[in-house]
Amino acid sequence: MLFGAPQENAPLLRKIGAQTGAAVRALIECLEHRDSNIRSTAAAALGQLGEHAKAAVPALTKYLEHRADYVRRSAAEALGKLGEHAAPAVPALAKYFE
Q1: Are 23 and 16 in contact (CB under 8 A)?
Q2: Cα–Cα distance measured from residue 68 to residue 51, given in angstroms and rounded to the nearest whole number
Q3: How far apart (Å, rounded) are the C-alpha atoms in residues 50 and 15?
Q4: CA 91/CA 11 separation, integer angstroms
Q5: Closest CA to 77 of 54, 46, 52
Q6: Are 57 and 22 in contact (CB under 8 A)?
Q7: Alpha-carbon distance 11 to 71, whole Å?
Q8: Is 54 in contact with 85 (CB distance < 8 Å)?
Q9: What distance in Å separates the CA atoms of residue 31 and residue 62, rounded to the nearest whole number?
Q10: Could you tell me if 10 and 41 are in contact, meaning their C-beta atoms sit under 8 angstroms apart?
Q11: Whether pTM exceeds 0.90
Q12: CA 20 – CA 5 distance, rounded (Å)
């Protein structure tokens, strides 16, 4: 991954911001981590980046079908914080809220 323990990466990257897009790319990478807690934290961090995280919409949409409810919830909340940039995820979000 990046540096230090994997569970430290997502919160740290959220603090860094999305100046060059590197933080967003790294958080998207964290969504693929084997630990669901890290996936959930990465999704939440992407949501906090707002429109800067629009490149994460496809990855976040994928996690609306994750087996862990808290990962699905984090992905849905993150997409909600992306506003109009999350428009491609609307059909998946509608299914999530059924």
Answers
A1: yes
A2: 25
A3: 13
A4: 29
A5: 46
A6: no
A7: 16
A8: yes
A9: 10
A10: yes
A11: no
A12: 23
State which amino acid sits at residue 48: Q
* Alpha-carbon separation of residue 32 from 9, 22, 35, 77, 78 (angstroms): 13, 16, 9, 18, 16
Residue 31 is given by DSSP the state T
Tokens encoding 61: 């949409």
**Alpha helices (H) in the chain, listed in sequence order:** 6-16, 22-30, 36-48, 57-62, 69-81, 90-96
Token pair for 90: 């609307």
Q: What is the pLDDT of residues 15-54, one digit of tens each?
A: 665 455 888 898 999 999 999 999 999 999 999 888 889 9
Cα–Cα–Cα angle for 98, 63, 91, rounded to 5 degrees = 40
- The structure tokens listed for 49 are 């980046």
pLDDT at 48: 87
Q: How far apart are CA 67 and CA 19, in angstroms?
A: 32
